[in-house]
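User: I'm writing a tutorial on reading structure tokens. Could you give me a worked example: one chain, its sequence, then its tokens, then a sentence or two explaining what the tokens reveal?
Assistant: Sure. Here is the example chain.
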Amino acid sequence: MELRRGQVAVVTGAASGIGRALAVELSRRGLHLALCDVDADGLADTVGRCEGRGVKVTSASVDVADRAAVFAWAEDVVAEHGAVHLVVNNAGVALTATVDQMTEEDARWLVDINLWGVVHGTQAFLPHLLGAREGHVVNVSSVFGLVGIPTQSAYCAAKFAVRGFTDSLRVELEAGDTGVSCTTVHPGGIRTNIVRNARTHGSADAIAGARSEMIRNFDRAARTSPERAATRILGAVERDRRRLLIGPDARVYDVVARLPAAVGQRILVAGTRWRSVAARP
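And here are its predicted structure tokens:
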């Protein structure tokens, strides 16, 4: 899909990270914006960075896990902007816990946002794209939607599901000759706050140690800026890419995912054990 001045783009999770970078870049290109997040202060900051470029920017505090709220927001967006051309379902959260430590409450919290938020955003805006026979949906998965990672079972489950959901949507849209398309995005380490804001489980000391190690590992791996990720995503939209890998680590995980399970998982086990040894004082 060609991105043109005057089109309307919807971005969830726009208060920081990739969502903010996308909003700023889209405003620079002259697209009008409808933004949402639960972080009111961060969202206001993003709006301020996008205004003053001759585009209309609207924002709303929306919990994407709340289906009724997302559908109501979609109706408000169409009423205020008159149309929608690009929808980016980006909002997401993180949880670090082994399967035996993970609570049902936290698992449901993550899946409600990372999976159902994508489903809600897609279903709420898709009828407007289909009615216009033009538009593109971008659903953000992760490299953890390619391989299973220890302490990330809920996150991987949700991100694998986003990948399957969006792949199915793509086939439906093409088979129906709808004029609408979609892309699944698999970012690797992007310099955002998602890990610092992640929920963790265990004793207080264990949580503190796990969080510190997790942040150190993430900072070492996060080689891609949100701005670079945003540019890559918009390029994928314009080239109608089915799937986008962002970052050198994403390409590594993609290779591991293509190996026989016994080989790929042994590589992951070895890497996990090495990090555990390296982290010891």
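What the tokens reveal: The chain has one domain: 8-251. Residues 214-218 have pLDDT under 50 and may be disordered.
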